[in-house]
Design a protein that fits this description.
The protein is mainly α. It has helices at about 15-25, 25-40, 45-60, 70-80, 80-95, 100-125. The protein is built from six helices and no strands. The radius of gyration is 21 Å and the shape is flat. The mean pLDDT is about 80.
Length: about 120
């Protein structure tokens, strides 16, 4: 994470407090960049974590003992509902931005996303 890209740094002695308050005007852009770089990029996703973990184990000499069917089953389970999670994250992000008709879009789309989430949760039982 980088100062002034992903967050506004505040000195421990609060000597730059007034400057930080003045910079709060740009917090929206910082928040959006942080979301894009850290969340939407997928760099810090669960799948990325598992991939890095597996790579490290393999570098240490551990070899996976798995068959193709198990790999396919686990992969399918990990990806189930991924599209809905991405849509919901984008929708939540969009709701923080002002745009004409926002209340109408929110009233129509939000119940649909809730319905699909309930259906997805039910299907995974």
């Amino acid at each position: 994470m980088q100062p002034m890209v992903h967050y506004i740094p505040l000195k421990k002695d609060f000597s730059n407090f007034d400057e930080v308050i003045a910079l709060l005007e740009i917090r929206k852009r910082i928040r959006e960049r942080a979301y894009e770089d850290l969340i939407a990029s997928g760099k810090y996703s669960y799948a990325g974590f598992i991939r890095q973990f597996d790579e490290r184990l393999m570098r240490l000499g551990y070899t996976p003992n798995r068959d193709a069917r198990t790999v396919a089953t686990v992969t399918a389970m990990l990806h189930k509902g991924e599209w809905l999670r991405r849509i919901r994250a984008r929708f939540r992000m969009a709701l923080h931005r002002p745009f004409p008709g926002k209340s109408i879009v929110k009233a129509i789309v939000k119940p649909m996303l809730i319905h699909f989430k309930k259906k997805l949760d039910y299907d995974s039982m």
